[in-house]
């Protein structure tokens, strides 16, 4: 069986296969993810923002998306001169929160924080998603990218990912792997891994990374594919067997799955801010400008690195085109690997 190669995330500040380069922007065949904002002014408002910004996080507290929101909310509020209120709306693999963001008043004061699970994988995993990410959102800016951690308890019998592969192949259906939920990148990664390596692992979906992490620490599951495990790995409470794309700075000795018995396998995730379609261009551009400035600050970059992220800046148009390309790539992967999200 040929290795299944997922969306790859490289070490530079730009995406590779899911490129945010201007070449990708100009060469993209579809304009579905183009910046969907109205060119008009902010009505009677003389300044933006005129009130608090609501930052909708479609996941529970403690997960990667929530961690990113906390890193950016305070400095962004300082830059904008208005509070940035983090609003966790968890459930349905991010769909509940992103639906709320899509249906919010398009005045520039509501922003959704989404990743590939919420904006791309959900379209394949849940055919009746009540929003169309390509039509209902105005891309604002990317924030960060990450290589997902595959972790287990220190007492787990495998000392390496290669040893885990051998155990899993010898014991089909024995091991349970948790993810942040059906249709998340962790779920997609697990399914692609099983197809690529010929494994039979029981998927245990949760309502976010934090509850999955708690069950791993409690010994209720054997493995976790989610970035929320990073702090526990660093604290020595969990063991990282591999990362799903390139190695990360805070775990330099943890190899990738591609280095560990599944050649060519590479999976990553990235996050970005979006507003409801029709939001004023001035609001989109203001947030984009401030995010770029924050991503240039050494303190912010260090916080991202400590949490396992790499900073990732873009224009609104580049972010939109990257999402479109990701959608096409993940669709090809789902079809090739015959992935089911039931």
Provide a descriptive summary of the structure in words.
The chain has helices at 22-27, 64-80, 95-103, 116-125, 133-136, 161-170, 185-197, 209-217, 230-234, 281-295, 298-306, 316-337; strands spanning 53-57, 84-88, 110-115, 137-147, 149-152, 176-179, 202-205, 223-225, 239-243, 268-276, 309-311. Helix 2 (64-80) packs across helix 10 (281-295) and helix 4 packs parallel to helix 12 (316-337). The chain folds into 2 domains: 22-146 and 269-337, Bordetella uptake gene, domain 1 (D-Maltodextrin-Binding Protein, domain 2, 3-Layer(aba) Sandwich), CATH 3.40.190.150; 149-259, Periplasmic binding protein-like II (D-Maltodextrin-Binding Protein, domain 2). 38% of the residues lie in helices and 17% in strands. The chain is built from 12 helices and 11 strands. The longest helix is centred in the last third of the chain and has 22 residues, at 316-337. It starts with 21 loop residues before the first helix and ends in a 5-residue tail after the last helix. With 342 residues, the chain is α/β, with parallel strands linked by helices. The strands form 2 sheets. Strands 2-1-3-10-4-11 form a 6-stranded mixed beta sheet, sandwiched between helices. Mean pLDDT is 86; it is low at 1-31 and 39-45. Helix 7 (185-197) links the parallel strand 6 and strand 7. The radius of gyration is 19 Å and the shape is globular.
